[in-house]
Amino acid sequence: MLYLGVERMGELGVVECRGEIVRSEAAHKLHGTIISLRDARTIVLDLSEVSSIEGDGLGVLLFLQRCTHDHHIPLKLFDPTNSVRDRLERARAVPEFDIATLQERRTTVGVEQNQRKPTSEAGSRELASAPLEHASAQAEDFGVLP
User: Fold this and answer.
1) Please, what are the domains in the chain?
2) pLDDT classification of 77: cutoffs 50, 70, 90
3) pTM of the model
4) Three-class SS of residue 28?
5) 3-state DSSP assignment of residue 48
6) Which is nearest to 105 in space by CA: 26, 3, 24, 14?
């Protein structure tokens, strides 16, 4: 089971995850939550309480990273647990992600609270329309799915 909490601080979106990201329902839930933050200038995904991530979840994470990157929205992973970090390493996906430390998260939050910039509505609409089905293809690119 995956539990998600969303916090907005100006143009910063923080998604706190707790549980497992292994089934398609959890992957869809994470996808929908990140998409709901499409107007954020930076998204921080707190993985400090995620016990495991597998196929569908990893595929969605890779897909969301590419989508946010394509729309110039930084997606930062905060403090992934050892099991999540190991899974990212086995999938050779670590270079794809910006993994933030506690200090970097605090700095990001402070900067985002002090800076206000207009968001791109066109980029937000494109990100929202990105289909979830491509997540599995992204996972296959990284050898995540059989």
Assistant:
1) 2-141 (3.30.750.24)
2) very high
3) 0.70
4) helix
5) strand
6) 14
